[in-house]
Write a structure and sequence with these properties.
The protein has 14 helices and 21 strands. It is of the alpha+beta class. The chain is elongated.
């Protein structure tokens, strides 16, 4: 059964893609809702007036009528929604009005017809949705809907997929949780029905990474159930390349060599004051790192009294970390040499990659790293500190107060601000790590390591 629904949705999404669209129409959204058991009202697509009249009569009572067009995403803005239509004469009039409004809104819009939908009872409006976060992936959202949504912005988030209990906990995580339990004589909503809408949306986006966004807005929650009045599904413009995946043991093995290295190579080491390669070398030497420090610079014989090597491949013995202090355009060729040398970690200080729009250059270094099995920290970072190893692999000022707190930041400015605070308050740290563009290593790797690190509490 689960396989059937996946195949059903996959073929639908493929058809949408084949038409060059990223937004699904309401009837297509209904197909997905039915496949995943997301409760929506009864609805039919009327392609002419008489069909609309027949469908409205079948539902009995008032209906909602909405334009269906792959080119009109915001139906209300186009005057394409009329609520509470009842009786054949009104249905006919509403059908013509909606079509005329749509043509006036966009003369070239492709119109599939008019959706005739059961009118839902009054209830508490909530929103259920899912978005794609660049770092964390699929994130499910739940919050209060209706006119209050913009004012209160009362929303809570979880990583998809969520199980039934976690979905239920989201109802208690918003500030307005009491409203859902019932206030001032009003009955509370069917909490399990609301939680089930959240769980099913989370299941859908976990099964289909190509779905960028799902929006059930509003969901009408009553004591008897929870039904989504509208389902909006948006596909990603392009599929993000799948990131490399590592087992826990693989993460710990490479992180151990990064955070507790015995030998470090500095690519772009320099004798010239003011250069990043000089600052990194000076910090490693002055910081008291007890391991081997190998400067790499094709134009120098020695740097800060240490023998310099033309290439990292000339460095004797094993090297755990290569710290890059060269311009972005030279990183790829130097990274190939790091790969040939079998160095497991590259710390990329230089900027000039994805953060400046150079996505292809960043993709190139990621591909090289994948080919050679190198883990990348950065690019575009201040470096990192591993205080219990007396390691200052950074161009910023040294820091040597040891403690049990590990710090990480994506932003260099925030990282250095925290470092300044730690210095003035003598707050000891076990490590400070810059993440920058997170081309590979991210919070997940660091948390895995810090959880095992005896020096990090």
């Amino acid at each position: 059964m689960a396989e059937d629904r996946v195949l059903r949705v996959r073929s639908l999404l493929a058809a949408v893609r084949a038409e060059g669209r990223t937004a699904l129409t309401a009837p297509e959204g209904k197909v997905i809702a039915d496949a995943y058991g997301i409760a929506v009202p009864g609805e039919e697509l009327a392609t002419d007036v008489e069909e609309a009249v027949a469908f409205a009569a079948r539902f009995g009572g008032p209906v909602v009528m909405k334009i269906v067009s792959p080119d009109i995403l915001h139906k209300t803005d186009a005057g394409g929604v009329i609520v509470g239509v009842e009786g054949a004469a009104d249905v006919r009039a509403a059908f013509h009005t909606i079509i005329d409004n749509a043509r006036a809104y966009d003369a070239n819009a492709r119109i599939s017809g008019v959706q005739v939908q059961e009118l839902l009872p009054k209830g508490q409006e909530v929103i259920v949705g899912a978005v794609t976060d660049p770092t964390f992936g699929k994130v499910v959202a739940f919050g209060l809907g209706g006119v209050l949504v913009e004012v209160l912005k009362d929303v809570t988030f979880r990583l998809a997929p969520v199980d039934a209990d976690e979905a239920l906990s989201m109802l208690d995580s918003i500030r307005s949780a009491e409203i859902l339990r019932g206030v001032r004589g009003q009955a509370g909503v069917d909490r399990w029905a609301v939680a089930e809408q959240i769980r099913r949306v989370s299941e859908l986006v976990a099964d289909f990474p190509e779905i960028a966004e799902v929006d059930l807005n509003p969901v009408i929650a009553t004591p008897e159930g929870a039904v989504a009045a509208d389902i909006r599904v948006i596909l990603a413009e392009s599929q993000p390349a799948p990131r490399r995946k590592y087992s826990r043991d693989e993460i710990l093995a490479s992180m151990r060599r990064l955070m507790q290295p015995r030998a470090v190579a500095v690519i772009g080491a320099s004798n010239e004051q003011g250069k990043i390669g000089n600052s990194v070398m000076r910090n490693l030497v002055d910081g008291g790192f007890a391991g081997d420090i190998h400067p790499v610079n094709p134009k120098a014989d020695d740097i800060l009294g240490r023998k310099a090597y033309k290439s990292v491949t000339d460095v004797p013995g094993e090297v755990d970390v290569a710290v890059f202090a060269i311009p972005a355009k030279f990183v790829a060729s130097a990274l190939e040499e790091v790969g040939r040398k079998g160095i497991p970690n590259a710390v990329l200080i230089p900027s000039g990659f994805a953060e400046t729009g150079e996505h292809e250059l960043q993709a190139e270094i990621v591909a090289i790293a994948e080919r050679h099995g190198i883990r990348l920290l950065g690019p575009n970072i201040y470096g990192y500190y591993s205080t219990w190893q007396d390691l200052c692999a950074t161009f910023c000022t040294p820091y040597d107060v040891k403690g049990g707190v590990a710090l990480t930041s994506q932003s260099g400015g925030i990282g250095m601000a925290i470092l300044g605070f730690a210095r003035t308050t003598k707050t000891g740290v076990s490590a400070i790590v810059g993440l920058g563009n997170k081309s590979d290593l991210d919070e997940d790797d660091l948390l895995t390591w810090f959880g095992e690190d005896p020096n990090t509490q």
